[in-house]
Amino acid sequence: MKGKETILLVAAGLLGLTPPMWAGDVAEPGGYRMNDYRASVPQTLRGASVVTTAEAKALWREKKAVFFDVMPNTPKPANLPAGTIWRDTIRKDIPGSTWLANVGYGAISEETANYFRQGLAAEAGADKSRAILFYCMTNCWMSWNAAKRAVEWGYSSVIWYPPGADGWERANLPLEEKKPYVISN
Fold this sequence. Notes:
By secondary structure, the chain is an alpha/beta fold. 30% of the residues lie in helices and 12% in strands. It has a single domain, classed as Oxidized Rhodanese, domain 1 (3-Layer(aba) Sandwich).
């Protein structure tokens, strides 16, 4: 019977019917996570909804939320010697997402905050009650920080998807290559 129970638990987990694999005993901090961004994350985020892969999939299929990936990106250094080959990061995102790179750090510059605000407004519109979903990777605090920041900026329908693109891929859902969002002047 033990083997059958294990198989059922694994199957239920893949369908999003059990406590998620990212759910641990991590307490929700009062402030932003400032380091060790790839670590176990809490199960909660005050002011936001936390969703499983099955719930995120339903929001995506029904187009009930605007999806934002907040995975960091390393831009090409300006001072590279001539002839140096640089390969941009290839990021696989949930289709239709906007990649707002580098907005999930605990402390962000005013320039990054403006980029974040402009990206949110451009993709989600001026209505701060519109559902917006943040993700990154499994066990990544970047999406937690970004979602927390959106809550603090007055967005009222913030959704955090902790499994991120990793959880999406584990569920055999589609991904597409993306480049970071660029503000158009």
